[in-house]
């Protein structure tokens, strides 16, 4: 079930490489990678679980409400992180020339199916 | 000089609230806030200097190249961070309904003037 959604997000986005469902402790639930993905999505997820925790702490301190989405644009990769609920997030890595608007749309519309399955 | 650019970015973006030029140690160089900004941009910058350091560490570990931009979407605020060089970044906070595409464009086109001034 998770696999279908994770694959749909990657295949539906030009430049999409890999997706991952992970908890905030850095433990992966499921993932999908295109065969040519130049990065290991599990490593990306584990690195960014630390980052997103620090973002959530910052948002709390600032009373900015819950964090919904984080986009990180590096030279060789864009990573979009969408918070599913208090325990889980989806990380989506794509090439630097990917259609990030489409990527955001795909995550926003597909993550509810993952949330439903997790509840 | 910085003040002009920081103000131009806020005023040129629908929903723009405040901008800040800060070094990665969390020390502000200059900032501009609209009078009605509901958040203190210096606090935001200091919180996110910690976040962006952890992102840069993650990107290094992943060999993803330098981080250019980070966008954080929380319930009550969007913060866009653009790395200026190895030492400085610009943080731009806006309301949740702001035009984030315009915000990214404004930062991308105005930050070179800041970089020139810092060099």
Describe the structure.
2 copies of one chain form a homodimer. Chain A has 119 residues and is α+β, with helices and mostly antiparallel strands. Chain A has a single domain, classed as Beta-Lactamase (2-Layer Sandwich). In chain A, 42% of the residues lie in helices and 30% in strands. Chain A contains 3 helices and 5 strands. The first copy, chain A, has helices spanning 2-11, 41-61, 100-118; strands at residues 16-23, 28-33, 67-74, 77-83, 88-94. Chain A has a 5-stranded antiparallel sheet with strand order 2-1-5-4-3, sandwiched between helices. In chain A, a hairpin with a 2-residue loop joins strand 3 and strand 4. In chain A, helix 1 (2-11) packs antiparallel against helix 3. Chain A starts with a helix and ends with a helix. Chains A and B meet through helix 2 and strand 3 of A and helix 2 and strand 3 of B. Strand 3 (67-74) of chain A pairs antiparallel with strand 3 (67-74) of chain B.
């Amino acid at each position: 079930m998770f696999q279908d959604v994770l694959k749909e997000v990657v295949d539906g986005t030009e430049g999409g490489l890999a997706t991952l469902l992970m908890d905030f402790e850095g433990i992966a639930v499921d993932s999908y990678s295109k065969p040519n993905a130049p990065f290991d999505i599990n490593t990306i997820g584990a690195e960014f679980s630390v980052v997103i925790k620090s973002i959530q702490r910052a948002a709390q301190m600032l009373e900015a409400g819950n964090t919904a989405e984080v986009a990180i644009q590096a030279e060789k990769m864009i990573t979009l992180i969408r918070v599913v609920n208090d325990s889980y997030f989806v990380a989506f890595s794509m090439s630097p020339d990917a259609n990030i608007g489409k990527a955001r749309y795909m995550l926003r519309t597909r993550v509810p199916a993952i949330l439903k399955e997790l509840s």
